[in-house]
Amino acid sequence: MPVSEAEVRLAVAAARTVVVKVGSSSLTQPSGHLDVGKLSALAAALSAAVGQGARVVLVSSGAIAAGFGPLGFDSRPTDVATQQATAAVGQGLLMAQYEMAFGRFGVRVGQILITAEDTIRAVQYRNVQRTLGRLLELGVVPIVNENDSLASNEIRFGDNDRLSALVANIVRADALVLLTDVDALYTAPPSQPGSRRIGYVPDVIAALDDVTVGGSASGVGTGGMVTKLEAARVAAVSGIPTVLTCASNAGPALMGDPVGTAFAPVKHRGSSRRLWIGFAANPRGTLVADEGASRAVRGGRASLLSAGVLEVRGEFSAGDPVWIDDESGEHLARGLAGFDSEEIPQMLGRTTVQLKRFLGDEYAHPLVHRDNLVLV
Ligand SMILES: Nc1ncnc2c1ncn2[C@@H]1O[C@H](COP(=O)(O)OP(=O)(O)O)[C@@H](O)[C@H]1O
Ligand SMILES: N[C@@H](CCC(=O)OP(=O)(O)O)C(=O)O
């Protein structure tokens, strides 16, 4: 586990598999239209890394930014339906440019569009993992974006920062590089007088207390620095180092030069699927655990049984993420529900033996299995 900045930089330079995320603001002109020059420069830097043997996954935003100009809008649309339609137009334009730009270096690209919803379940998760793995084996640079045109509003990432950290987990990346329109993390939004550049963050969780982060200032970006730090945190707890810098520093960042901000990993890798449950999507409902069940869940190795659940809130399907709260309303854990919300009221308070006797074998299972549960 690297501890000094030099070791973190070295780990990034030596990474065999690297996920690079580029934000909308780094691919567009001030007018909002796609900036083909910036996109080509990025493709050149990533192709050089591929030429040196790296396996590169590019998580690229920019579908909405690329689509609104050609559709005749003056600025990024704000309503969901128009954003989704704009992304459908822009995503094709974006990929056409990437194909051409990487093609100049003989590098092939492939498009992967992900929704939070269809990757939260184990089968789809493994599907994404297998396809990305195969693309990398074939020497292709997968270009990933959220499937904006189909993502449902309640369960979308919105920004691509957290998505990139999860993709880094899925492909078991050795490094994550976040490219944006600011050269590094600052102690406060760079527009604030007196804000200072931070070159190295040894512990991202502790750093969250010392840094003032703001939203996007660009008009095309989405999450600002908040979601980038969240991505760096997810990567860190997965054992993955992160470098955050501006897109024009992509080449030096990948070579381990001291540009931008480097974040050290804070822990050895956990299970990527459990991280996915913890961070991928917003819970759709809540299961309220009684005192005994809360204690068992807090203990870390227990499933949530219906005998210890007092109440179900919200509407969800089996497999959806839910909160597990204690009676005072405090969040204890996130987990994937084992049943649809409408099936649960008849199960509440019943033991496994009672469930079997009164409702049948198919109900004699935990409401949330411990393998699908992550403490918060
Ligand atoms: N503490 C901070 N340090 C650096 N940038 C910050 C900070 N707080 C807020 N920001 C803003 O975050 C912006 C980057 O986020 P965003 O516009 O969403 O980019 P992207 O499109 O690359 O995701 C920067 O341009 C900057 O204005
Ligand atoms: N998936 C969206 C990303 C939205 C967005 O602006 O993200 P980001 O620039 O990474 O903050 C798109 O391609 O337009």
UniProtKB/TrEMBL annotation:
Its main location: cytoplasm. Transmembrane segments: none annotated. Keywords: Amino-acid biosynthesis, ATP-binding, Cytoplasm, Kinase, Nucleotide-binding, Proline biosynthesis, Transferase. Substrate binds at S61, D148, N160. Residues 285-368 form the PUA domain. It catalyses: L-glutamate + ATP = L-glutamyl 5-phosphate + ADP. InterPro entries: AceGlu_kinase-like_sf, Asp/Glu/Uridylate_kinase, G5K_ProB, Glu/AcGlu_kinase, Glu_5kinase, Glu_5kinase/COase_Synthase, Glutamate_5-kinase_CS, PUA. Its EC number is 2.7.2.11. It is found in: Cytoplasm. One of its GO terms (cellular component) is cytosol. GO terms for biological process: L-proline biosynthetic process. It is an enzyme of class 2 (transferase). SMART domains: PUA. Pathway: Amino-acid biosynthesis; L-proline biosynthesis; L-glutamate 5-semialdehyde from L-glutamate: step 1/2. ATP binds at K21, T180, D181, T222, G223, G224, M225, V226, T227, K228. GO terms for molecular function: ATP binding; glutamate 5-kinase activity; RNA binding. Belongs to the glutamate 5-kinase family. Catalyzes the transfer of a phosphate group to glutamate to form L-glutamate 5-phosphate. This is Glutamate 5-kinase. It comes from Bifidobacterium scardovii.
